[in-house]
Amino acid sequence: MSMTDTELQAYFQRGGILAYPTEGVFGLGCDPEIEASVLAICALKKRPVEKGLILIADEFERVRKYVDLDLVPETMRSKIFASWPGPVTWLLPKTASTPKSVTGEHPLIAVRVSANKTVGRLCRLFDSAMVSTSANLAGQPSALTAQECSDVFGDDVFVVEGTTDGRTQPSDIYNGLTGELLRG
After folding, report:
1. pTM
2. What's the domain count of the chain?
3. What's the rounded Cα separation, in Å, for the pair 126 and 73?
4. Which residues touch 138 (CB under 8 Å, ≥6 apart)?
5. In this predicted model, what pLDDT tens digit does every residue of 57-98 receive, in sequence order?
6. What is the domain extent for residue 99?
7. Helix %, strand %, coil % for the chain, to 5?
8. CATH of the domain at 64
9. What is the DSSP secondary-structure string of 104-171?
10. What is the maximal distance between C-alpha atoms in the chain?
11. In this structure, what are the phi and psi dihedrals at residue 35, rounded to the nearest 5 degrees?
């Protein structure tokens, strides 16, 4: 099945869940402001909501409202912005308006500015950041192709065709306050 951009935009706005290529693996995503969709992604993956999820965007301004940049040390800000766009996720202080369904039990929010063309196209089409978590069941290998997403999730998600940027692992994750590598 395929959708026009208008249909895809409407699907996203009404809480639809997408599978889409990122830098290294396919991700599952939705509008971060629609709590029911965020919770549905966690249920599909069999992932505890308390673990939190990543927000992905094509530019920092799309995630800016979720990040309290004033709490990030100046020395870290330059490292963060120098790593974007790219396959690097940073845990940053969240704002009071950040949905708890996205951050789980954590005081920080995970954000990434991606260079992936499909991610960029979707964020521009939706004029929004998206939730991003690897397209897999918790504890299982991440999907690397659209077909693998369809095989695992069937009709529960709309699979956006495309290819990853060639990495075979999810993004590296750093603490934006300390620079500590947490996954990579």
Report:
1. 0.93
2. 1
3. 31
4. 45, 46, 47
5. 999 999 999 999 999 999 999 999 999 999 999 999 999 999
6. 5-183
7. 35, 20, 40
8. 3.90.870.10
9. TT-SEEEEEE---HHHHHHHHHHTS-EEEEESS-TTSPPP-SHHHHHHHHGGGSEEPP----S-SSPP
10. 47
11. -55, -40
